[in-house]
Amino acid sequence: MRVIRRSASAVALAGVLMAGLSGCFGDDESGGSKAQGGTGTTAAKGGVTVAKADKPIAQATFPSPIAAGATVDLAILGLKVDGRLADLTISMTPHVRAAGSAQRLTPYLLNGGTSLGVFLIDTVNLKRYLVVKDSSGKDLQTDYVTTNLANDQPGQLSFTFAAPPKGVDRIDVQIGNWPTFHNVPIER
């Protein structure tokens, strides 16, 4: 009996989490979706969500090992806590010229063919937050290996973490092999 109760509880929890996450974006009249937290609207373009942020919280341009002279613009569009979860939304814009411009552009390849490894780093409590998994063990994040990005066009990616405790109003964000974004504000 006890095993059945735990399995039923796990299935119920997974359903609640998925229902909550599916409500993060609602359709607007333009056929795109409107992100919560004042990050503007997004529109689907060739299977990729194109970011249209009002104003990024933090942004920087870094070199990318995908090709000689390639760069990538990273922008943190929002970090919003909703209950026990925190949703991080970022924009990634590749700038690849010459021989690399015709090849497939994914966050994975822009990061040198290695795991994107997105983490929240809580310098107050000395903790690192990993992307949470659903009940089947799948990470609650954009698939950065298969997501195609268009050259010189922003693409939006999202990642879900356990929420940092109240009292933590800023956190560091690590994205791939690029330098860490420090003191990113958390919206509650």
From TrEMBL:
Keywords: Signal. It comes from the Bacteria. This is Lipoprotein. Residues 1-26 form the signal peptide.
